[in-house]
Design goal:
2 copies of one chain form a homodimer.
Chain A: H1 2-15, E1 20-21, H2 24-27, E2 45-46, H3 51-64, E3 68-71, E4 90-93, E5 100-104, E6 109-113, H4 118-127, E7 130-131, H5 144-149, H6 157-160, H7 163-166, E8 167-173, E9 179-181, H8 195-199, E10 208-215, E11 217-218, E12 222-230, H9 233-244, E13 250-257, H10 258-267, E14 281-289, H11 296-309, E15 315-318, H12 322-333, H13 335-342, E16 345-351, H14 357-371, E17 376-382, E18 387-393, H15 402-420, H16 436-442, H17 445-458
Parallel strand pairs in A: 2-4, 3-4
Antiparallel strand pairs in A: 1-2, 5-6, 6-10, 7-11, 8-9, 8-10, 12-14, 12-15, 13-14, 16-18, 17-18
Chain lengths: ~475, ~475
C-alpha cells in the first residue's frame, strides 16, 4: 500500500489536483460495476485530459508498480472496469479526454478521444450528414475507449460489424510508456503485427486506449422498422435469409420470445403489443437506406407480404411513423429491465454459428429447464449474428438466495452447452472479472498460454488492469 | 547443422518420404524468391498434407531448435518465404494442404486449407453462385495461407478490404505445437486477444497458418469496365469521390500514368490505347453489381458523361464487351512487366492517407527526379486505397549496376518521404527480408519493442521464420 500512497503523491505533484482526485465521495460512484454486482475500492481517480498526461501516469505507475484500472462510462457487463476490493489499484478515468480531434465526411473518418460519449459522436457525425453506425442501449454514457477496449457490438452489427470492423486505428499508451499511434488513417499498412487489432477487445490489459479513428458511413436517409410474428427461431432465421437475398437494407434483426414481450407489457409503462394476435416468437426488423431514391418502408412491406404468403411469418406490421418505430425498439431495449422487475435473472451473452442458433436455443432452453426445475430459459437478441442473450429466470416461488445458490451451476451448464456447440461464452460483453474462471475452465490450454504470453510480454510489470480478461 | 540433419532424419522417420523431400533438384526451384533477388538454401522441403502433420513437424523443430520457413506459392514480393542462404532453416511448404474443407453459399463462408490456390477458390465459389472477392495478378499460383500471412491486398480492396477484412478465422499451429482453431465461424466472440488478427500479416513468424475461414459475397451478375483520361492524380481522386457519392458499384479504381501506358504499348504485344487522344493520367474503373436488376454499364456511362460535363475527366470509354474489359485490365496488369523489359526499375509499395496521395505522388516524384538526375519516378495502382506502387526507373543510359549502386539511396529517400507524410513503407507487400532494415530505421522504437516482445513471447525458441518481419 505504501507504493500506492507514494504513486498518488507523485501524480499529484506532477499533474495537479484536477487530474488526481482523492475525495472518497467523488470516487465512490465509480468503484462498483454497472450491474451492481462487484464492489471495488480505489484510493484515487486519475482523470488525465491528454495523452501526454496518460503517459506521465503510466510511467509513474510502472515506477511504483501500481496497477491502473482504465474506465470509460462504467457501463461494462463483465466488471472489467471495476478495481479490486483491496484498494491496491488506482482508477484511471478517461472521462476528461472528450475531444473529437477531427471528423470528416470526405474521409469518412472521425478521430475521437477515449472519453467521448457514443451519443455525442453520433450527434457530431449527424451534423455532417454522416453516421457512426454502432449503437447500443448505454449510448448516453458509454465511451469510445470502452467500446473499443471491449470490442462492443450492439444492434447494428449485422450490417456494420462490431467495433473491430469500425475502428480504423487506435492510439494507446503502452505499459512501457510508449505511445502507439495508429491514427494515421492509412487504409493499407503491412508493417508487422497489427497492434490496433490487438488492443481492440483487450479490456485495457495491454495498454490505455487514448483515442480511436472510427469509420463513418452516410447518414440514414430513410428507415423502416417492422415487427413480425413467427413460429420458431428457425423460421425467424429463414425470414432473415429471405430478406437478405432480396435487399441489402436490413441492418437490425432482433429476436424476441413471446414471454419476454409479455414481461415488457406487464412491467414497462406505455408499451403495447405490436401485433394483435399471439405468436410464439417475434422479430424486430430495421432497414435503412442512405439515399432517398426509394421508399424503404414500401420495399420492406412488399417483402414481408411475400414472406407472409410463403408462410414464413404469421403476421407483420410496419411502424407507421417514428414514434411507432421507437415504440417497437423500446420493447426490445427494455427486456432486461422488465426481467429485473419481475424477479431474479441470470444473463448469458453467448454465440454459436448463425445457422446453428435456432436449434441451440430450443435445445439449450429445454435442457436447462429440465435440469433446474421451475426456471424459465429463453433467449433474445441478435439472431443474425448468432448472438443471443440467453437468460434464465428464477421460478416465481424461488427463494431470494436463488441467484447465489443456483447461479454458478446454471451458468456452468449453459457455458458447457455453448462450448459443446462450438460457440463462445462471451459474444460481445467480454471477459472482465466475471467470466475469467469460466474462460480458464473451458478454453483450450494452448489458448490460455498464448493469452498469458502476450500479456506478460507487453505488460511484464502487470500494471495494466490486472485480474481482468487473462486467466 | 547437426541438429538440422537429425531433425530431417526424425521427420523422415515420423512422416515418411512423401512429406520430407531431400532431393536437391526438387528443392532448388523454391529457395529463390519470386522476383529472383534473394537466393536461399534449404536441406529439405517438408510438405505435410494435414494439420496433424504440421503439428508433428513443429514439435520436432522445437525439439531440435531448427527454424521453419513456411511457403505457399512463393509469389511474395518481400522474400518472406525464402530461407536463409546458410541452409540453417528448413522450408515448410503448405502446397499439399489443398482441401476446401467446406464451402457454403448459405453461410457465405469457405474453409480453405493453406495450400489452396486463389484461382481454385475463385472457381469453387463461382460454382455456387458466390465469389471470394480478393484477387491479384498471381492468382494462379498464390495460396490462401500466403495471402493470409501477408494480409494481401490486390485490386478490389476499395470495396472489400484486404485479407484482414475477408478472413473470418484462422487455424494455425503455434510455435509450442498447440493448434489455434479459429474456424468456428462465430460472427461475434470476445474471449480475449484476437489471435486470428494477430496471425494475419504475421508472415509466418508466430505460427504456421494451416487453414482459413473466408467470407464469400454473391457472384458478380454484371460488370462494367471503363477507362478515363484525367489531368492529374487530384482529378482522378475527385472522379472517385464523384462516383462514390452516386453509386456503391465501384470496386476497382486504378491509376495509370501516361508513361506507364506508353511502356505497355511499346513492350507488351496485343495492347492498344483505350482512348484516342493523349492524357497525362488515366484511371481504370471496375464497377459490378450482384443483382441483374439494373444495367451497370449504362449507369457508369451516365456517371462518366456527367463527370465529363463537369470537367473532371478529359475523355472516357466503357468496354463494349468482356474482351475489351480484359484488354483494359491487361494494360494495368502488365505495367511492371513492361517496365522490366524496358530497363532497370526500383519498386516501392507505399501508402499515405487517401486524400494526401495526389499531392504526395506529384511532389515525391519531383523530389526523387531532382535528387537522382535522369531517373523517372511515377506511381500507379490503388489510388482509392491511398496505395501506390511508386516506381523509379533508371535513365535509359544508366549503367547495368545502377540498381546495386543507386537503389538503396533512392529507396531510403522514398521511404523518408513516405514516413514524413505519415505513410507506410509497406502498404500491401509486407516486410519479409527486404524491408526489415528500413522498418527498423523508420519505425518508432516503441513499436519495434512491441513487435519483438510479441514475437519472443509466442516463439521463444525462434523457430518460426526467423529473420523475417521483426527487426
Amino acid at each position: 500500500m505504501t507504493d500506492t500512497v507514494q504513486f498518488i503523491a507523485d501524480a499529484l505533484e506532477t499533474l495537479g489536483p484536477k487530474v488526481v482526485v482523492t475525495e472518497p465521495r467523488e470516487i465512490e460512484p465509480w468503484v462498483t460495476d454497472w450491474r451492481g454486482r462487484v464492489h471495488g475500492a480505489s484510493p484515487a481517480i486519475l482523470a488525465p485530459a491528454s495523452t501526454n498526461e496518460v503517459v506521465s501516469i503510466v510511467k509513474l505507475a510502472a515506477k511504483h508498480g501500481v496497477p491502473l484500472v482504465p474506465q470509460g462510462g462504467n457501463t461494462g457487463m463483465a466488471a472489467g472496469a471495476t478495481p479490486p476490493a483491496d484498494g491496491s489499484a488506482v482508477l484511471l478515468s478517461l472521462r476528461r479526454m472528450r475531444q473529437v480531434r477531427s471528423i470528416s465526411a470526405d474521409n469518412r473518418l472521425a478521430v475521437a478521444e477515449a472519453g467521448v460519449i457514443l451519443a455525442d459522436l453520433h450527434a457530431r457525425a449527424h451534423d455532417l450528414g454522416m453516421r457512426f453506425p454502432l449503437t447500443l442501449g448505454s449510448r448516453g454514457s458509454c465511451t469510445i475507449g470502452g467500446l473499443t477496449s471491449t470490442n462492443a457490438g450492439g444492434t447494428q452489427v449485422l450490417k456494420f460489424g462490431t467495433m473491430r470492423a469500425l475502428v480504423a486505428g487506435v492510439e494507446a499508451v503502452l505499459p512501457d510508456g510508449n505511445v502507439h499511434s495508429g491514427l494515421g488513417g492509412l487504409k493499407k499498412d503491412n508493417r508487422g503485427y497489427n497492434l490496433d487489432q490487438l488492443l481492440i477487445g483487450a479490456e485495457g490489459t495491454l495498454g490505455i486506449v487514448t483515442a480511436v479513428a472510427l469509420r463513418l458511413v452516410p447518414a440514414v436517409a430513410d428507415r423502416a422498422v417492422a415487427w413480425a410474428g413467427v413460429d420458431s427461431p428457425a423460421r425467424a432465421l429463414d425470414l432473415l435469409r429471405f430478406l437478405e437475398a432480396r435487399t441489402t437494407a436490413v441492418e437490425g434483426f432482433e429476436l424476441v420470445p413471446e414471454d419476454s414481450l409479455q414481461l415488457v407489457l406487464k412491467h414497462i409503462p406505455d408499451t403495447r403489443a405490436p401485433l394483435a394476435g399471439s405468436h410464439c416468437w417475434h422479430v424486430l426488423i430495421e432497414a435503412t437506406t442512405a439515399d432517398g431514391s426509394h421508399d424503404i418502408a414500401a420495399e420492406i412491406e412488399r417483402l414481408l407480404a411475400a414472406a407472409l404468403q410463403q408462410g414464413l411469418i404469421g403476421d407483420a406490421v410496419i411502424a407507421a411513423n417514428e414514434a411507432q418505430a421507437e415504440a417497437f425498439w423500446k420493447i426490445r431495449d427494455t427486456i432486461s429491465e422488465a426481467e429485473r422487475v419481475d424477479g431474479q435473472t441470470l444473463a448469458h451473452d453467448i454465440s454459436v454459428p448463425v445457422a446453428d442458433m435456432p436449434r441451440f436455443l430450443t435445445d439449450a432452453a429445454a435442457e436447462v429447464e429440465r435440469a433446474f426445475p421451475g426456471v424459465i430459459a429463453s433467449g433474445f437478441g441478435h439472431l443474425g449474428d448468432g448472438n443471443i442473450h440467453f437468460h434464465v429466470r428464477a421460478a416465481s416461488h424461488a427463494a431470494s438466495d436463488w441467484y447465489d445458490r443456483e447461479g454458478a451451476a446454471i451458468t456452468r451448464m449453459v457455458d458447457d452447452l455453448v462450448t459443446a456447440a462450438g460457440g463462445s461464452i462471451s459474444a460481445e460483453h467480454g471477459i472482465g472479472q466475471l467470466k475469467r474462471a469460466e474462460l480458464e475452465r473451458l478454453a483450450p490450454p494452448g489458448r490460455i498460454h498464448a493469452l498469458r504470453a502476450i500479456k506478460h510480454a507487453l505488460d511484464p510489470l502487470g500494471i495494466m488492469n490486472p485480474g481482468k480478461l487473462v486467466p
